[in-house]
Amino acid sequence: MADHHDTTFESADSGASLTIPQQAGQVRKNGFIVIKGRPCKVVDVSTSKTGKHGHAKCHFVALDIFTGKKMEELVPSTHNCEVPNVQRQEYSLLDIDEDGFCSLMDDQGNTKDDLRLPSDENLAKQIQDMFDEGKELVVTVLKAMDEEAINMAKEAAAGK
Predict the structure, then answer these.
(1) DSSP-assigned beta bridge partners for residue 96
(2) 44, 31 in Cβ contact below 8 A?
């Protein structure tokens, strides 16, 4: 009896982990943490003292970095929690189409056309207004856990 196992491993990513474990007591305000499977930026951390039965607890209040939704988590300070691998990259804004998709270019001249204007209406309006005024814009794109979003925009330096 011949068992045939044709196993093919294909991967398009660099193999970098989406999250890294970190002790809850080491996560600080303005750091990042995964709460309910979402990458979040910590806005407040409070630590309770050890109780009668054991561990000090860390209470995290954080905002989802893509939706802005407020999330909370209570973790024993000695336990590990997941910290998202967050990357920031700046792009020049080339165009915004009528569907709200942005055409972006990085420092090497590579274009990226798969990101929409941010879900934050104030930021989206600010970007659209500055672009309509003919200003050259640089947008910051945050990437974490296979999601990407524009989270900031500024006017490009005049010397570029």
Answers:
(1) 102
(2) no
Main-chain phi, psi angles of 123, to 5 degrees: -65, -40
Burial of 81 (0-12, 13-18, 19+ CB in 10 A): buried
The pTM of the full predicted model, rounded to 2 decimals, is 0.76
Q: pLDDT for 101-157, tens place per residue?
A: 999 999 898 998 999 888 888 888 999 999 999 889 999 999 999 899 998 888 887
1 Cβ partners below 8 Å, 6+ apart? none
Choose among 132, 45, 60: nearest CA to 93.
Answer: 132
DSSP codes of every residue in the chain: ------------S----SEEEEEGGG--TT-EEEETTEEEEEEEEEEPPP-TTS--EEEEEEEETTT--EEEEEEETTSEEEEE--EEEEEEEEEE-TTSEEEEE-TTS-EEEEEESPSSHHHHHHHHHHHHTT--EEEEEEEETTEEEEEEEEEPPTT-
- Cα 17 to the center of its chain, rounded Å: 14
